[in-house]
Amino acid sequence: MMIAANWKAYVETPQKAKALFAAAKKLAARKGLEIVLAPPAPYLGLLAPGNRSKVSFAAQDISDSMGGAATGEVTAAAIASVGATYAIVGHSERRARGETDAIVLSKAQHALAHGLRPILCIGEHERDSEAHYLQFIRAQISVVFSALTMQERLQVVVAYEPIWAIGKTSAEAITPEDLAEMVLYIRKVLGDGLVGDAQATKVLYGGSVEPGNERSLAGGSGVDGFLIGHASTNVQDFILLGKAVS
Description:
Elements lengths: L1 E5 L7 H15 L5 E5 L2 H7 L8 E4 L16 H6 L4 E4 L2 H4 L5 H13 L3 E6 L10 H13 L4 H4 L3 E4 L15 H16 L11 E3 L8 H5 L6 E4 L6 H10 L2
Parallel strand pairs: 1-2, 1-8, 2-3, 3-4, 4-5, 5-6, 6-7, 7-8
């Protein structure tokens, strides 16, 4: 089971970053639990170099440029050089700032070219009674996977984050039954010529995941883990989240 902790911009001091890293190292020692931390870029540079623990690191985002005259951008090459092994691409908060599917694909390709495994975020804004949102999900997956080689496709982790569930209470978020149906659908899309064995692709869930609902969402839904935002930036909650699924 993978827990990918997206700290977003909640962590703003090196002291808090180090405390969360210490908790992550303890959790990563648990059997069957993979911990991936996605700190803000300055703390990625603080924590990842020289890391010899079982904790892995991810960039919250990468540039779709190759470098050079691109003020403020952080390239895949730079991220890989400090010891990260994953990169989140296509997060809904980046898409809301104007990232298109073409940009998400470019970022995934840059990540793969530098040995980073993309964590591809997908998710619908809302659900409709005719289930048109399923075609939206299919398109978000297909536009990236169809442009990659089969070897590259096997490196991609899919993170399903329905936008309507983000920021809600656990009671208002997705039900275990609905999550199980969506995981099956995602694997069906992957199995339709995109990946030889759809079970080989990790599928994560994110969207109001808390210690109180994580275990029920994990049980029987078929997810391989969770992409967790705000709840992963509180040391005690983070520990509870790890214990709940290990």
